[in-house]
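Supplementary Note 3. Input sequence used for the single-chain structure prediction.
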Amino acid sequence: MYKLIEKNDVDFLISVCGEDNVVVGEDISEDFSHDELGGVEKYPEVLVSVYETEQVSKIMKYAHENNIPVTPRGQGTGLVGAAVAIHGGIMINLSKMNQILELDEENLTLTVEPGVLLMTIGQYVQERDLFYPPDPGEKSATIAGNINTNAGGMRAVKYGVTRDYIRGLEVVLPNGEIINIGGKVVKNSSGYSIKDLIVGSEGTLGIVTKATLKLLPLPKKAISLLIPFPDLSMAIDTVPKIIKSKSIPTAIEFMERDVILAAEEFLGKKFPDNTSDAYLLLTFDGNTKEDIEKEYENVAHLCLENGAYDVFISDTQERNESIWSARGAFLEAIKASTTEMDECDVVVPRDKVAEFIRYTHDLQKELNVRIKSFGHAGDGNLHVYTLRDNMDGKTWEVKLKESFDHMYRKSRQLRGQVSGEHGIGYAKKGYLHESQSESYMGLIKNIKTAFDPKNILNPGKIY
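The predicted structure, written as C-alpha cells, is reproduced below.
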C-alpha cells in the first residue's frame, strides 16, 4: 500500500520547490487529471513544478523513503494515460525545465532540458541550418515526452524514430540517484544500453532531466507529391514498390477522402484535390531542386504505372503548407466530428496495411460503429479511431472494447504490434499482455523491478 500525502509531505515539497510551485488537492487544475485523449482520469494528491535536476532527485529520494507514488508529466499530449496519476501521490510537472543548454556544432548535438517543446527544437536548429528529424504530429509535446514514448512521426521512413537521435541522457532513478548515460559519442558498445531502455519506457524506469540529441545538416529543399488513386488498396500496394525503387521519400502517408473532407471542414479551407477515394502523400528532401526532381520523377512514373490518376507536385512553400496543414489537422478534425473517441495505434508489416484497413471498413458495418483512419504507409503505423457519436455510456464501453479486441487480434494475425508510436501507458496494457509471451512480460517485470523495486515511479503503466 502506498502512503497517502499528509501535511508534513507537502511541507517537505514546499521546502524543496517553494510554495508557488506546490498545488494540493482541489486546487489542482483539471488539465492534470488526464492526458490528450481523456479516457483515463485521476487527480494526483499534490502537483509539484520543478526547475532543476536536484529538485527531482530530492523528491524521488523522499518518495522512495516514504513509499509515495510519483507520476512524471510534460505537456500531457499523450494518448494512452501514461502521464495520469492512477495511484494519486505526487505529480512532477517537468514542463518548466525548458532551457536549451548547449548547441555543439562540432559534434552536431543539442543538449536540452526535458520540458523543451519539439516545435522549439525544430525552429532553433533550423535557424542555424541544422535539422532534428523526428516529426510526430503533436509539435507542442515536450522532448522528454517524445523520448519516453520513442515517438516516430512522418519522417520515420527515411530518418528513423526518436531512439535513433538520442546520444545521451541524464536520468533521476526512483531512489533519487542521478545517472548519466551515453554522451556525445557516435558509437558505444560499453555494456547493456541503459539509454535505449529509458527511451520508450513511459516514465516507469527513471525521470529524464537532460537529453543530448543528434542533429543533421538541414536539407535545403523539400517537395511534396499528392497522388490520387481509385481506391486505398491500389494506393497502399504501391508503397513497397516505392521503397524498393531506391528513391526513398522522407515521408509516405495515406489518407482517404472522408478524412480529407473532415479536415477541410475543420480548417475552413480547401485541400488541393478531394475527388478521389484514396491518396498517397509523399515528401522528398535534398539540397537542390535537381536532386529532388530525379528522385520524385521515378516515383511519379511508378505510381502512374500502378494505377494513380495523377501526380500533383507541390514545389512551393504555400502549396506544401496547404497539404501538410490538412494532414496535421486530421486528428483534431476527426475529434471535432464526434463526442468522444479512442485510438488503436497499431503497426503492421508494410505489405499488410491495405488488408488491415479493409478489415476496419468491414468492422464498421459489422459493429455498426464509425471507424476512421490515416497513417504512415511507409512504416506500417496506422492511426485508427473508433468514434462514440451519439452512443450512451454503456453502449460506447461495449462497442469500443469490441472494436479494439477485433483490431488488436487482427494486428497479431498480421504479425504486427499493439503500438507503433504512442506507447502502452494505462489504457493499452491489457492488449500488450495478450500480444506477448509470459517470458517476454516476465522480462519487462524484472527490468521494472531492477530499476524500481518499490514500484513508486509511474505505477500501473505498461505492466
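The chain has a mean pLDDT of 94. The two ends are 18 Å apart (CA to CA).
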